[in-house]
């Protein structure tokens, strides 16, 4: 089992903002969060799908992407530790993105030690094992050789491909049962067992909740992070307890 990562407290966890110019209310919520509650944190963990899509680090100079990256860099420069785990929409975020924003990229999954609490972090899509077609797609696009080939294409071609893929994905979702697109209980129990029965935090499913799993005589809590719409929402851990919060409570 890999050595656990350490980070400063309090720690905040967010995912699935899907930032884009088409949703200015979510962008405003993100900027307000970065300039407000996040400044009081010791560390911030972004667990994937911060952007609606990320076509590659050579797209950083697009005005919208540049502004979002500058906001993250300002937070990092203020002394907050930033950690980033890619999701299915932003899996092409790489070293240049991390350098410009001041964030540390994390593999999926990653084990975190905060005080006496061990926490396993994941975007969550790898746990949706009942969705066989998605898992086949995920294996393909996570392959380094595929990514190298894709990133060698012109940026405009990549963006056009991603846009078409998004439309296909939305159409395919209409024909799938919601349970297929949720995490698989056995997959969750297997990863909790593999990493020593920690707490688990993930996003991806857009089904925010607190779940309890009983694995090998251990009670493990699983937090599912919320997606964002017109206000910020996050999970915090102060070394003693987890707490959900949103912009209306801050």
UniProtKB/TrEMBL annotation:
One of its GO terms (cellular component) is extrinsic component of plasma membrane. Pathway: Glycolipid biosynthesis; lipid IV(A) biosynthesis; lipid IV(A) from (3R)-3-hydroxytetradecanoyl-[acyl-carrier-protein] and UDP-N-acetyl-alpha-D-glucosamine: step 4/6. Mn(2+) 2 binds at residues 49, 88, 123, 204. Transmembrane segments: none annotated. GO terms for biological process: lipid A biosynthetic process. It is a peripheral membrane protein. It holds the Pfam family Metallophos. Its main location: membrane. Binds 2 Mn(2+) ions per subunit in a binuclear metal center. Mn(2+) 1 binds at residues 16, 18, 49, 206. It catalyses: UDP-2-N,3-O-bis[(3R)-3-hydroxytetradecanoyl]-alpha-D-glucosamine + H2O = 2-N,3-O-bis[(3R)-3-hydroxytetradecanoyl]-alpha-D-glucosaminyl 1-phosphate + UMP + 2 H(+). It is found in: Cell inner membrane. It comes from the Bacteria. HAMAP family: LpxH (MF_00575). Belongs to the LpxH family. This is UDP-2,3-diacylglucosamine hydrolase. The gene is lpxH.
